[in-house]
Every structure is written in C-alpha cells, then in structure tokens.
Amino acid sequence: xxxxxxxxxxxxxxxxxxxxxxxxxxxxxxxxxxxxxxxxxxxxxxxxxxxxxxxxxxxxxxxxxxxxxxxxxxxxxxxxxxxxxxxxxxxxxxxxxxxxxxxxxxxxxxxxxxxxxxxxxxxxxxxxxxxxxxxxxxxxxxxxxxxxxxxxxxxxxxxxxxxxxxxxxxxxxxxxxxxxxxxxxxxxxxxxxxxxxxxxxxxxxxxxxxxxxxxxxxxxxxxxxxxxxxxxxxxxxxxxxxxxxxxxxxxxxxxxxxxxxxxxxxxxxxxxxxxxxxxxxxxxxxxxxxxxxxxxxxxxxxxxxxxxxxxxxxxxxxxxxxxxxxxxxxxxxxxxxxxxxxxxxxxxxxxxxxxxxxxxxxxxxxxxxxxxxxxxxxxxxxxxxxxxxxxxxxxxxxxxxxxxxxxxxxxxxxxxxxxxxxxxxxxxxxxxxxxxxxxxxxxxxxx
Length: 447
Description:
Elements: H1 2-21, E1 23-30, H2 36-46, H3 67-72, E2 79-85, E3 88-94, H4 102-111, E4 114-120, H5 127-138, E5 143-148, H6 157-168, E6 172-174, E7 176-179, E8 187-190, E9 195-200, E10 207-211, H7 218-235, H8 237-246, H9 251-263, E11 268-272, H10 281-291, E12 301-304, E13 311-314, E14 323-332, E15 336-345, E16 347-349, E17 353-356, E18 361-364, E19 367-372, E20 375-379, E21 381-383, E22 387-391, E23 401-403, E24 410-411, H11 433-446
Helix pairs in contact: 7-8, 7-9
C-alpha cells in the first residue's frame, strides 16, 4: 500500500511538472498600430480557438471586446486568453500600444514569463517600441521579435533588424528571413533547418508548402545562418566550444542553444511575416513554444516574510505553499470584482480561505475563472504557473500578495509610472454627482 501511494504521488508530481513545462505565459507588446491585436487574432485562429478571423477596423476581434476599443480600433485594456499549440498551453495577454495605457503593459509584464515584441516592417522601432522594450527589460522578461507588415510598400526586414541593434541595443538576429518583399512577399527561409516555405491562398485559406530555397537567395541564407551561429556562440560558452572544436552545430543543437540564450536574456530571435495576410504566424507559434520559457524555466520568485523580515523564495511547484500576485482588477457586471492573479507556487481552490499579506486579512475564494477575453470558464482549482481571475476577494487590490497565513510572503509591488497629465472633472448636473462618484470609485479600484 505504501509503495502504491508513493508511486501515485510520483505520478502526480511528474504530471504537474509536465504541465508546467508545457505552459507558456506570454504577452504581445508593441507600438500602437504595429499589428498586435491582428497577430493575436491570427494566433487564436491557427490554434483553433476561433473559426472566423475578426478585423480590427470592423471591431470584430476577440481581444478588443470593449465598446470603446471596437469604436476606436485600438486596444485600451489588456485581455487574457488561453489556447493550445502542438500540445503546449499558451496563456496570452494582448496589451495596449498607446502610451496613455502603458500601465496595462507594466502590470502584465510583471507576471509574464515571455514576450513577443511586434514591430512594423515599414516604421521599424518606434517610440512606444522602446518603452515596452525597457519595461520588459525591467522585469527581465525573455523576448522574441516579430517583424510584421512585410507586405506593405516601404517595408524592409533587414533595416528593422538593424534598428533593433542600434535603438534597443538588442543582441538580435533572424532565425528566418523573408522570401520577396512588399507585394511580392511570399514566404520564409528557416535558417535553423535551411528550408524554404511559400504561401498560397488568401486570408483564412492561406497555406504554406515547402519549396527549394530560391537560387538567388542560397548565398544570402547561408551567410545569415553563419551569422546566427556566431551570435549564439558569443552568447553561449557551450555553443562556442561546439562551434570551434566540432566545426559546426546541428539544427537540433542550434535550437537548444537559441532557447537557452533567449531564456537567459542574452539573445532575441527574430521572426518575419504579415499577420494581416496570415503569413508567418505558424512559424512564430513554433518560436513561442520552442524558445520562450515555461514557468519551470523561470528562477524561483523572491519575497519578504512579513513576520521575520527575511527574504524567502517560492519555486514553481504545486507542492509548495501558495504564493500569487494580484496584478489587475476588472469590474464585471455579473459577478462583481474580478481579481486577476498569477500563481507562482502552490494551488488555489474554490471555497478556501487565502491570506492577503499586504493587508493582513483573510478572504474566501468564491469562484475561479479562466478568462477568454470577455468569456469566462469556471474551474475549481488553479495551480502554479496559472494565470486566472478570482471572484470573492473584496478587499484585495492591485499589487497585493495572496498566500497562506502559516507561510506568509510579500512580493515586490508593481511599478507604476508617474502620470503625465492631471485634470479636474465635475458633473454636468447635480443629478449626475452620485453616478460620477460611483464611476470614479470603480476606476480607482481597477487602476
């Protein structure tokens, strides 16, 4: 009986670790109009989450669900959604690109393990691109870059890559290069495996097929692959030894070294495509699962024990005591206040009491939901590595740490940028005074 119980426990531990290793918590960040939401919509289509592709200009995208977002064609609030790609679970947060809503990016990056930074192939690195890049660097979030809109007139993939080096100081290099440009952009060359793929069809019917590398691009592709290997060798000592002593690196080894260098924030893989034309999205999804970290790849989270005032850490393990951070609050017309939390260790269960270490209070978890933009999926339990929303934590606010009272821990608060403008408002009529007060109270709770 004891052996059976031990085997069952080991099986549970192995299953939990497998789930962690197969999870990616990522954000999509960029300057406004670089194509974040369009890219997110295509990702949801390719992963089978949606069956009809929405359009930003028509206000029909999944993640821009607020009326104000649909009317203006911009993302105002970050939206969380879950999907799957090749047996990997992706928790994706689509963030705003407008400078006015940069705090949405800040609090999202605080709890994410990786980021896809989208750049316009025409404009390259733009002012807000630099801002979100610095925000990701502040939290040491590993990144991959996606040069978008390569079907546009004036787009230049290699010029955009060069700007990553000059303006952002990034150790970045393409892992694929485009075949053709502007209206003739028709495919990509995978530099890791030295294979070419061309696209056929339009919109949701777009499909790719493997083709020989165009004769006029063989030399360029070989040169770019050589430069990629040199970049990785400079970032990884083991790769350098392999390159120097063995005279080359096999594709599966190169993928391993790229992943390791990316997770260590020593390298940024660059992908290319046109999200609107549905080109390059599948290869980007492969890059997300291949190169960005799982919760198990991230160092243990550190915090302060409020009783001993000593630093402690929590590993991404369901066997550890609960440690979670409330990073966003949203008012819901049906269930009230939704508290978005990232669980770093332990488990969160419906009906149990949790301890708010920041406010020294206990609160009961009424409901746990997985968010799919404005849709909700009720679950009874969430584990280490999960990002979920919780109902019932009435006094919890943004930046609070949720844990167990017997093993308290306080995580670092979220950094809030200083406001760039202030103004006074007053109700148009006396009758509006009460409604205005309620609206301001709601905004205060959510901010």
